[in-house]
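2024-03-11 09:14:02 DEBUG pipeline.ingest accepted 1 chain
2024-03-11 09:14:02 DEBUG pipeline.ingest length=78
2024-03-11 09:14:03 DEBUG pipeline.predict start
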Amino acid sequence: MTYVKITDCEKNPFTGNLWNYLTVDGYTKRSGAPTNKMVKIEGSNRWYRVYQFCVSNTGTLFIKTKDNPFLIVQSWQV
């Protein structure tokens, strides 16, 4: 598991169809469901969308980069 260091955070509503990211049962697919948060990480000027992967009542927040498709974001930083 790799955690990222957040340098900036902003709210940016997701305007796509959220149902494309959910299963019939209401759980997120393996790709994760996009949230309304965007973050900048240490060493980059790019904004990344925060995704949530949830298989039970708890979820994991993560971002996807070119080098790593699963960098974990700590919820208290967002």
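2024-03-11 09:14:41 DEBUG pipeline.report The mean pLDDT is 89.
2024-03-11 09:14:41 DEBUG pipeline.predict end
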